[in-house]
Amino acid sequence: MAVCFSLGATDASSRFNDLGHRLMCTCGCAQLLGECNHVGCPESGRERNELSDAIAAGKSDKEILGSFAAKYGATVLAAPTGEGFDLLAWIAPFAVFGAALLGTILLVRRWSVGRTPAAAQVQDPATDALREKIRRETGSDGGF
Amino acid sequence: MAAFGSFALLIALALAAYNLLAGAVALRLIATGQPARISPERLADTARRAGTAGFVAVTAAAFALVGSVFANDFSITYIMEHSNRALPAPYKFAALWSGQEGSLLLWALLLGIYGFVLRLTHKTDVKLYAYAGTILAGIQVFFLAVLCFAAPPFALYQGAIPDDGNGLNPLLQYPEMVIHPPMLYLGYVGFSVPFAFALGALMMRYPGEKWIKVTRVWTMVTWMFLTAGIFLGMHWAYAVLGWGGYWGWDPVENASFMPWLTGTAFLHSVMMQEKKGMMKSWNVWLIFSTFLLTLLGTLLTRAGLVSSVHAFAESPIGTWFVVFMGIVLAVCVFTYVLQRSHLQSEHHLESLVSRESSFLFNNLVLLTACFVILWGTLFPILSEYVVGNKVTVGAPFYNRVAVPIGLFLLFLTGVGPLLPWRATSFRSIRRNFVLPVIALWVTVIVCLAVGVRPWKDGAFDTGNFYALVDFALAVGVLTAILSEFLRGAGVIARQTRRNLIVATWLLTRRNTRRYGGYIVHIGVVIIVIGLAGSAFNRSVESELGLHDKLSVGPYTLECVGFTQDSNLNYNSEFALLDVYRGSKKQFQMSPEKRVYLVSGQPQTMVAIHSVPAWDLYVVYEGTNPDTGQPIIKAFLNPLVGWIWAGLAVLVFGTLVALVPSLSPATAALRVPARTAPAEPALKGGRL
After folding, report:
1. CA distance B224 to A133
2. From the CA of A39, how many Å to the nearest CA of chain B?
3. Which of B65, B261, B548, B602 could crosslink B544 through cysteines, CB 3.0-4.6 Å?
4. Hey, which of B260-264, B267-271, B560-564, B681-685 has the most confident mean pLDDT?
5. What is the pLDDT of residue B442?
6. What is the CATH number of domain A12-76?
7. Is B437 exposed, middle or buried (0-12, 13-18, 19+ CB in 10 A)?
8. Structural domain includes residue B663
9. What number of C-beta contacts closer than 8 Å exist between A and B?
10. N-to-C CA span, chain A
11. Do A78 and B361 touch (CB under 8 A)?
């Protein structure tokens, strides 16, 4: 681990590298621009040059990504933007996770508070006894 | 051979259909007790035998296809498109799964093998196995129908038969391609078995949890194959595609990862059902979802719904898969609604901080991760449908959303096993967690001391921050697991007066499931450490003339030659690079670029030098047409080797967990019965 950190996270060309991994190659190879390496790619070389020129011209990341999207279409961006319908792509996973987490906590709390009546569900004692017997006879050898 | 193969497939379809229909009728008769002219048990037995015979027929079809590849029978379209005369023998086997028709035949073959093994062991529980066998037959009918009517592997070539075939896709001409797809398919197809048992057990209202015990081995073996298949695919992508990475969040990679996530959730939550009779509905739906996700993966590849580097086999059979998935879902929902009263939990959770709740949270995180991947995979379709604007959801999205979820899962990997069942106390928490927490913070301090800066130049550096959290959590979790081993081994060492190593061995043998599981977790931690290394990847690219040099990390690469070669299969260009560390020459590397003669497709042969700290990964990018000199790209990828080492540990742990635990040895001891007192004594006489 120490070796990793001693290398440093990024090098001098980090901005080109970073932006190259936020854009797609437009030749249809479905690879990130920074990783497209197939021989004779008609697009990636030109895109890389455009990216280098834009960085050299002092444009901001947002301006560069915007100009690429305007020229090649929204699919050139490797991830949805944070605007309009695209925002849903970013919100939904965290919303689902948050809702599921909250739901689980509330469920466990409700069970733990009212567990005495819950334990005495409408169950046939004979079935319960049979279940226990089966579990004893076929049960696991420990598990976690 | 083509006629024989086609006929074998038709026979297999007829046998599978008989297995399904006769099995279903027999089970219905047994369930209702209706009188019938034929004994339902005998009918069920004929269905089982038909399933076994069907396996023979599918195997014959698969052999016919492989035999045709070796015989260079280019009258068969599939062989013409996926093989050629100069193809090396191992890759002729790989031709079986290199195209759509062949890979569907492989699916049917593996399903046949699983079904054959299942039917061989049917005496374990004749009725349950009859249900499972019939459901498997239903799945087999679908795949054989697709093979017979929609994607026939033995279709004849129309027109003059060519002298040679198109050859195998060069990307697939790599040793791992001979084992990666079968491994992945063993995993995909294998989940049909626990699915069949779960659905069958629900249909017949199977009492108790024996079906889980029966399917445990199937599920674990399947999970192990799927895991190995995914990692072999990663290694193939790393070694062949030449972009320096191993996971690109491609839709097809995602498709293999989703059932792995739900399958992993099932493996954990099923323990709650075994031990406590809880989460029954949840488990049933987990295994239903896992099976459906394996079909979805195939659908994504075949139907061309999403753009993918794997979309080599798009065809109309996507419709077949949609219909089949709809039927499977309908059967699952119908059965669940009808039988849900059978799935009532016998206990509920008692505390938010307990082993049970850790399983629940573990499931929650795994399913959220699955949702994130499914959401990201399908969002381009949704966006196009809703706003008419197709977008790309690539690695930056997944890295930002999935990494925090993965870290939370890593945290639970450490915490869960340390919590006791039912409820815990503060004292127990303190006893179990002090050491891991200390280890975690020591790691943070060490990382900060050696140079990690989560806030770099005033800006938040997510790469550095996630790597720091990852390393710290990994060390904490590793400490927690090792302390569990040491605690148990210490007790055994004291009891048996053996040393700690022997005691650890005995401890593991006494409860292979538990400690095998811990070894799997150690494997996961090692893998996660390896994955975190990617935050520190670096690369340089340069055109190298003779004796030109290129530096990356501590290495200097000197070009000492570049030349060309050719054989019957391909032409190649390669460079010879002497690698120095300081002023001392360490080794030589030879990155290569091949162009296959038949297809004209190029292929990168990456040169990799792997040590525990990092991989030196060198790619021959091409040749500058003006100078004729090679363009070399060199990567220094830290800790990649840990990923493959972690996989080995993970597979080892799974195998340990599959071994039955050592039962305490018992032996009958003959003890002479106490001599009955003699009558006189009872009467007060002398002995």
Report:
1. 32
2. 7
3. B548
4. B260-264
5. 93
6. 1.10.8.640
7. middle
8. no
9. 216
10. 30
11. no
